[in-house]
Design brief:
Blueprint: E1 8-10, E2 13-15, E3 20-22, E4 27-30, E5 33-36, H1 39-49, H2 57-65, H3 76-92, E6 99-101, E7 104-106
Antiparallel strand pairs: 1-2, 2-3, 3-4, 4-5, 6-7
Length: 107
Amino acid sequence: MFLSWQYKFRKGSLINLWVQIDKNERKIKKNNSVLQLTEKEINFLILFSQNDQPLSRNFILKNVWNFSPPKSDTHTVETHIHRLRKKFSEKFKDNNFIKNNKKGYYI
């Protein structure tokens, strides 16, 4: 279990200590605030919640988009991470939701 994501599934929802992810409606709820996300953004968050270590760019590409380009081919992951960070910052005032280090991205 990922330390910052203590979660369980319940009727299409992923719930942790501070946020509820509704996979079917592609929404996130935190303190009665709702954030609508794209299907890929929801897939990102579910992927993060199911892994207990930083995820490499190529791992994310393979598991969210189902392809493995050379390392320098695309900035798809970086662009989606940037958009997710911006949405979380604007809606929930959370600037540190998705972090990264030399091994990859994590929450």
